[in-house]
Amino acid sequence: MFRKVLIANRGEIALRLHRACREMGIHTVAVHSTADSEAMAVRLADESVCIGPPPARDSYLNIPAILSAAAVTGADAIHPGIGFLAENSRFAKIVEEHGFTFIGPSPAHIDVMGDKVAAKRTMIELGVPTVPGSDGVVEDLDEARPVADAMGYPVLIKAVAGGGGRGMKVAWTAEELSTQMSLARAEARAAFGDDSVYIEKYLPDPRHIEVQILADQHGNVVHFGERDCSVQRRHQKLVEEAPSPVLSAAARAEIGRLSTDAVRRLGYRGVGTLEFLYQDGAFYFIEMNTRLQVEHPVSEAITGVDLVREQLRVAMGEPLGYGQEEIAFDGHAIECRINAEHPETFIPSPGRVNSYHAPGGLGVRVDSALYDGYTVPPYYDSLIAKVIVRGRSRDECLARLARSLEELVISGVATNQALHVAIVQDPAFRSGQYTIRWLESWLAERSA
Q1: Annotated catalytic residue within 10, 207, 291, 365
Q2: CATH code, 258
Q3: Residue ranges making up the domain that contains 32
Q4: Which of 154, 302, 316, 417 could make an SS bond with 172 (beta carbons 3.0 to 4.6 A apart)?
Q5: Is 437 a catalytic residue?
């Protein structure tokens, strides 16, 4: 059992990790920048350590400062949370070399899955279907053109080290390939310090389906069903639900089996998510996230399993203690990401929260670190709350979600709350017949 865990993150996820540790009797250390000195996780943690000024590179990405905080406070383990250093293999390796437990997968697995080309090759070897594309990195236009011509346009140019939609461009014609490839490489270089790209066939209208898995250090692997994350803007997820409203029972069982078999053969440990595009009854692997995800609460809602608690148990070396057949799926859950941004322009809106009231009632959960008087800093991601609702059916879930969004009060900063209200009321969303292209088309029609 861990005695003390250092939480190397901020915001609602830092608070989420603290709560899980507290319920397990584990003491917590919250590290923070000077901009987050009044954050809720900092207030509630057993100890807190300031690790630098507001810019992330000087605080939440400052590995020496985080390790020093762990050493000074006597922490046993470090949880990287979501984002920042969560998928940084160098950080994971340094943490372990300094005698702390890294709450996550091995550095080797972070490495192979962090490289999109290596991840794709690995999944092909493990028998998982992937999107047709180049056999590795394309170095220049001369190498890219025959690959694209052979697949047929449109094609997708993707950063090897990419994530969150950055370093991703579509070339609709051969004439666009050069320009879009240059843009993708420039964006990848700026975001990840690596301008390597590869090419995949562009699927015109797929769903984004992902499978939540958990593996212990003893060869046991289970999944917690799929999540449908197709409501996206610029490849950024906005609404997630579980189960997917379009998968048949057979498709659901098949993708679960494929995912757990692959992870078992990989020898992976910890939580992770395999992400797929789904179109015309076929799944295509696109990437694996080797960490906890923002949308993990929807899987918790339909299974009743605390994924952070399980993540901590696995990191301690404990066996799962249950098999796939013991995970019961019940009801339907939807999560809406509430961002501090203008609902139409999407410009970030940091500032002081004058009042905050979270919705409640049966089946309603809100993950947020907001409180009256809290100041949303301008330096980090704009996510400030997640409204997660569960119902016995999707219809009941939608009704409860609509009511919960009406109850939510956040004043002082602009949010996308009104956008979520409109989405939940839209017939296409309510029918479940949406794809990853739907939201952007819907937004364009509203602004026309």
Answers
A1: 291
A2: 3.30.470.20
A3: 4-103
A4: 154
A5: no
